[in-house]
Amino acid sequence: MLHRQLPLELPLSKGVACARKEHRQSLVGEGLAERSLSEADLVAKLNQVFYDVEAAQYDVRHPEVIEGDAQWWSRRGEVLIRDLRTRFTTGRGLLILDVGCGTGFVASALGNYLADGDLVVGLDQSEGMLMRARSKLAGKTVSRCRFVRGDAARLPFPDHIFHMLTLNSILHHVYDYRSVLRECDRALKPGGYLLMAHEPNKEFFQSPLRRLAASAYKLAGFGMKLPKDIYEQINSRLSESHLAASAASAEDILRLVEYHSPVEQGAVRIDKNKGFSLPELRATELRGYVLIELNEYSTFYHRPQLERRPWLMRVAQTAARLLNGKGNLFSAVLRKAAA
Ligand SMILES: C[S@@+](CC[C@H](N)C(=O)[O-])C[C@H]1O[C@@H](n2cnc3c(N)ncnc32)[C@H](O)[C@@H]1O
């Protein structure tokens, strides 16, 4: 059996003592200061509520993922799956784990390259996102996919069983991202591939000019927005679970949900200490991994407001080419050292 254990309910909030109470007020703001939750628990709970609510609209609200990342995943999937088949000849098919699978974006991108006996397991803590994934893939590659609920920082799988581990736009949502990477390393076979994409590139945000450009982009109204219906549903769920004394601000919600994103730490301010540096990760949790590919890129111009105005989209894409150099996001392919 593949799963060691699959928790039905995640022990995220109830009765958790606040380990860092002194930070609580400044970290979570007025509305979310009611319960004694650690910052880590708040980030987890906010993510769960947020994605349960956003699930039905996720694919439409995030063209920067669904359109922006699709080609990369499909091309890498084709090449790497073919390579894995030549190197792992167990005859039992390939096992792939997509951590933080959401509505099944990576599973669909890889689906065309799966063969009989292969299995993609999508893991996510939001039941709302998992339900969308199951219904989206029904009738397509669903017989080769399983979607299970779980915490990325505590993977419910045995050691060294997956040939490939994928993460798309998940690491910056998890308070303890180092545990996620350690867990991925534990579950990945020696010689297997680790792919991560759509993560904020810390290197990019070291430049004051780029931080200024990112602030201007937000000020011009193109930043991430919470529509009224989503904002109200999130607050009513927070209030039902006694997590908020009064309505949490949209800014607080985004700051906690996008916990390691440099651009969501304030209305305009960009936090250069947030985000991830691949060289730093390779010197710590990913030591011993061979870097196959690093791609620094941007998809920020895939916002609904810009997609409705093709001329503005072209201006934004040209500005991105001129200004970016590095790209505010990165994707990477790494191979774990063989045993
Ligand atoms: C931006 S979405 C990305 C979804 C999908 N990978 C994609 O590219 O469309 C982030 C996902 O991470 C999930 N998530 C956040 N924290 C998590 C955790 N600790 N464990 C498992 N999933 C988590 C959310 O529920 C959400 O589905």
Description:
By secondary structure, the chain is of the alpha/beta class. The protein has two domains: 21-57 and 205-264, no CATH class; 61-203 and 275-300 and 326-336, Rossmann fold (3-Layer(aba) Sandwich), CATH 3.40.50.150. 40% of the residues lie in helices and 16% in strands. It has 14 helices and seven strands. It has helices at residues 24-28, 39-54, 58-61, 63-66, 70-87, 105-111, 127-137, 177-187, 208-219, 228-240, 250-257, 278-283, 304-307, 310-324; strands at residues 95-99, 119-124, 145-149, 162-168, 188-200, 289-297, 329-336. Strands 3-2-1-4-5-7-6 form a seven-stranded mixed sheet. Helix 7 (127-137) links the parallel strand 2 (119-124) and strand 3. Helix 2 (39-54) packs across helix 10 (228-240) and helix 5 crosses helix 6 (105-111). The chain is globular, with a radius of gyration of 20 Å. The two termini are 24 Å apart. Bound molecules: S-adenosylmethionine. S-adenosylmethionine binds next to helix 2 and helix 6.
Describe the secondary structure blueprint for this structure:
Layout: H1 24-28, H2 39-54, H3 58-61, H4 63-66, H5 70-87, E1 95-99, H6 105-111, E2 119-124, H7 127-137, E3 145-149, E4 162-168, H8 177-187, E5 188-200, H9 208-219, H10 228-240, H11 250-257, H12 278-283, E6 289-297, H13 304-307, H14 310-324, E7 329-336
Parallel strand pairs: 1-2, 1-4, 2-3, 4-5
Antiparallel strand pairs: 5-7, 6-7
Helix pairs in contact: 2-10, 5-6
The structure holds S-adenosylmethionine.
